[in-house]
Amino acid sequence: MRTESAEPAVMPADLDAQQQRFDTIVVGAGVAGLTAARLLSQVGRRVVVLEARDRVGGRVVTDRRFGLATDLGASWIHGITGSPVAAAAEAFGMRAVEFTVGGYQPDSRPIAYYAPDGRRLTDAAARRFADDIRVVDDTLADVIADSAPDASYRDVTEIALAAQRWDQERVERVREFLEHRSEEQYGAWIEDLAAHGLDDDVIDGDEVVFPDGYDHLPRRLAEGLDIRLTHVVSHVLWSTDGVVVTTDRGRFAAGDAVVTVPVGVLQSEHFTIEPPLPQPQAGALGRLRMNAFEKVFLRFPARFWDDGVYAIRQQGAGSRWWHSWYDLTPLHGTPTLLTFAAGPAAAGTRDWSEEQIVESVLAQLHRLYGDRVERPSHVHVTDWQDDPYSRGSYAYMTVGSTTRDHDDLASPVGGVLHLAGEATWTDDPATVPAALLSGHRAAENVLGRGIPIETTWSAAAGGAAA
Q1: How far apart (Å, rounded) are the C-alpha atoms in residues 303 and 285?
Q2: Per residue of the chain (466 residues), what is the pLDDT tens digit?
Q3: Nearest-angstrom CA–CA distance, 345 and 352
Q4: Which residues does residue 378 pair with via DSSP β-bridges, in sequence order?
Q5: What is the domain partition of the chain in residue ranges?
Q6: Predicted structure pTM score
Q7: Which residue, of 59, 129, 317, 418, has the greatest Cβ tally within 10 A?
């Protein structure tokens, strides 16, 4: 984040009479921003939402090019028990299908494991492997609790593995699993993730996906709001007197602002907050990073993989990049596999063409299924790393970060500036529920009083549509 403004400081009182003024400016029309704007509008505040994209939703986006809804950003509700997003989805009539990932679970679902030589593990061998992971996880809980502030997830997992006194082969298989967990959960290499980086990895209840598209959620939240699309915000100037937000289509002034852009944008030289964020917000922001995490959807003319399995997992050196495939066929009835380019794989393939990525993934599948593997009929590959309005998929805790950093980032600044978004919620960051809950908190902070969160989806938003 730049610490100097490229233009003279202009406070709200200095703006000419034609400048657009509001009670509150919300920067970003993702779930966090829409939630805050909706709640504030409902109580009569004049709110404008400034969104750089030509659509609402932010990192919730659904592609319907091939006649099927494909969620390129957020896909799951990771645990519907007590989830405000699950409640909102139900209220909005969003059709859901149970599809439980379980925090990169080792079993509990039918998973086809393949050994380093490409042969499928027997059921007994797969159970022993899953049991080994559970033993290490039990040890890991105490190791993480006792870890140093600058410990990485690699540091603590190595201590937990060494405590088992297993042979090298057995250790290596579990080590790979822990590396892949770090990548698949947070899109980060295990040595870059803080020891406490997976502390929030707890799921209550079933997980669900939306065969008709997750984007119905932000579209419903946006109804009735004053949303200015294709307004790229570059500068947020704040003082105790109010806030001025500069876009490529003019300036907007208000008594306060809710800024919901992702961490990657907050840290970008193209987005300036002036004066710079104070402590503890600045320190917290400096210890968070946007990850490298891309989705690769492959739709096939016919199914060639194992029957009755939920996921396919490869062990060994061949699994360094492509190690897990999820069978999404039940969503639409079309044979579909989803895999992830996460962490090093996402960085390594960042400049690859879609065809290169597909060839690399198919080469790995050929090791498992041979000539049965067909060419995919349709492919979707995401590119969140190069999206200028996100600069990654979601935030993770770097080495030296603490779980408190999420909440510290959301601490109100000067009584007028409020940061919200998935990275600002401690209990379940990097999720849509975190975004929604953070938007709710920001609205309460703006008003200085509580608001029932249920009003987010149970009452119509005020204001005029733009």
Answers
A1: 45
A2: 222 333 333 333 344 445 799 999 999 999 999 999 999 999 999 999 999 999 999 999 999 988 899 999 999 888 888 899 999 999 999 999 988 776 788 988 899 999 999 999 999 999 999 999 999 999 999 999 999 999 999 999 999 999 999 999 999 999 999 999 999 999 999 999 999 998 765 667 788 999 999 999 999 999 999 999 999 999 999 999 999 999 999 999 999 999 999 999 999 999 999 999 999 999 999 999 999 999 999 999 999 999 999 999 999 998 899 999 999 998 999 999 999 999 999 999 999 999 999 999 999 999 999 999 999 999 999 999 999 999 999 999 999 999 899 999 999 999 999 999 999 999 889 999 999 999 999 999 999 999 999 999 986 434 433 3
A3: 11
A4: 299
A5: 12-58+214-290+397-458, 62-103+204-211+292-386, 115-186
A6: 0.92
A7: 418
Q: What is the CA radius of gyration of the chain?
A: 23
* Rounded CA separation 131/43 (Å): 53
Q: Is 333 left (phi over 0), alpha (psi -120 to 50) or beta?
A: left
Do the domains 62-103+204-211+292-386 and 12-58+214-290+397-458 match in fold?
no
Helix (H) or strand (E) holding 458: helix 455-458
Class of domain 12-58+214-290+397-458: alpha beta
Q: How far, in Å, CA of 390 to CA of 183, rounded?
A: 19
Nearest to 236 by CA among 214, 252, 220: 252
Selection from 403, 144, 197 nearest residue 158 by Cα? 144
Task: Check if the beta carbon of residue 178 is closer than 8 Å to that of residue 136.
Answer: yes
Q: What is the maximum span of the chain, computed from C-alpha positions, in angstroms?
A: 75
Question: Can you name the CATH fold of 62-103+204-211+292-386?
Answer: Polyamine Oxidase; Chain A, domain 2 (3.90.660)
Cα–Cα nearest to 352, from 376, 383, 325, 373: 383
DSSP 8-class letter at 443: H
